[in-house]
Each structure stands twice: as structure tokens, then as C-alpha cells.
Amino acid sequence: MKEALFVDCCIRGEISRTARLARAFFHALGGYHVAHVDVEKLDISPLGREMLQKRDTMTEAGNYEAPMFDLAKQFASADMVVVAAPFWDMGIPAKLKTYFEHVSVSGIAFDGETCMGKCRAERMVYLTTRGLDIPDGDEQEQATPYLKALCRFFGIMEFQSVSCYGLDVIPSEEGEKRLARAEATAGELAESLEDL
Ligand SMILES: Cc1cc2nc3c(=O)[nH]c(=O)nc-3n(C[C@H](O)[C@H](O)[C@H](O)COP(=O)(O)O)c2cc1C
Question: FRET partner for 110 with CA separation of 20 to 30 A, picked from 39, 64, 147, 183?
Fold first, then answer.
């Protein structure tokens, strides 16, 4: 069975609105085993000098046995990656950026010589909610361009997203309607992927 990697950065947990989109997506997704990474709970730090030197020494020696490579191996071997994350500070939460620093390993996620992607996944799905009235494609929306760039670097050719915006600035009833529509869209997207 194919594997979907659920990169869950719904930091607010149960009350997360983004998590509602993720639940709708996975409820409708068939044909995949789902591996869940709870980014909020990961014991990871941004790459500092010491860690980077240690990592470079190992990758240059072709030694990928250390646990520090586990997240990268898991990411690179998934058939599909599903990222669920709220929109923070016009981009992604820092913990998710840190996760990608740990995934983006030369020799695992990309080839250090050719800079060609080495990830198996054909597709990334990005699920998000935003507080302000910032639609997809707005210049203030820097999460999607960043994730698309990463996908290209990792060799993941397809990128699809479901977003819901304005949730902190519109009346809650209207927000609930928007969220319900986005949940339906997430479910339809998942159904469309089942046979691919
Ligand atoms: C730390 C933090 C930073 C945020 N930054 C932004 C922002 O830059 N732009 C925006 O539109 N909303 C911003 N928001 C609002 C969230 O995007 C919005 O409430 C979203 O629906 C939260 O998703 P969640 O319910 O899954 O946590 C921010 C919220 C938090 C907690």
C-alpha cells in the first residue's frame, strides 16, 4: 500500500481550524497507509554550527545511520506528503521550518552533486487556514511559494493546496461557512487522489 506522510503542524491541537481540514482530507482518503508526524512534539532545534558540522561530516562520508537522519529518510520515502499548518507571520510556523531543515539532507532529500531531488513523492498537499483576508497568490502569502520551492528542490512535481482565509476578521458564522466549504474541498481533493 502507498504511504502518505502527514506532516501535522497544527500547533493548537484540538482547537486548530487547520486540523479540521486535515481530518476532512484523511477521512476521505483511501488507498494509503498514513504515517503521522506531530511536528509540535518533535524534539528538534534549528540547525546550529555544531549540528551542521556533525551532519556534513557524516553526509560527506556517506554515513546516514544516525537518528538525526530519520526524519529525512521518512520524508524521502513517502509516496505523498500532506502538510497541515496554520498561517503564521505571513508564512509557516518556525517549528515547521525547523522540521524542513532536518528533512533537507544532501544524499537523502536531494543529490548534493546534481542538486536534483531524490524524494519519491509525486505530490505535496498543503492544508492551511489564515486569520487575515489574504487569499492564495497574494504577495503577503509567503507560505505557498516557500513550500512550492521546496517541492521543486526535492523533486516533488505536483503541489496542491486547500486554504481558508479571513477567519479572524469575519463574523464567526461566516467563518464557519468558509471552513465547511474548505473541508468539503479537502475531502474532494482526497477522493480525487485515491486512484492516482
Ligand atoms: C503566532 C500566530 C501568528 C499568526 N500570524 C498570522 C499572519 O501573519 N497572518 C494571518 O493572516 N494570520 C495569522 N495568524 C492567525 C492564524 O493564521 C489563524 O487564526 C489560523 O486560522 C490559525 O489556525 P489554527 O486554528 O489551525 O491554529 C497568526 C496566529 C498566530 C497564533
Answer: 39
- Say if residue 150 is exposed, middle or buried (CB neighbours under 10 Å; 0-12, 13-18, 19+): buried
Q: Are 128 and 163 in contact (CB under 8 A)?
A: yes
Ligand 1 pocket at CB < 6 A? 10, 12, 16-19, 86-90, 129-132, 134, 167-168
Cα–Cα distances in angstroms (integers) from residue 65 to residues 62, 72, 113, 168, in the given order: 9, 12, 20, 45
Domain that holds residue 89: 2-193
pLDDT in tens, 81-130: 999 999 999 999 999 999 999 999 999 999 999 999 999 999 999 999 99
CA of 87 to the centre of ligand 1 (A): 5
Q: How many domains does the chain have?
A: 1
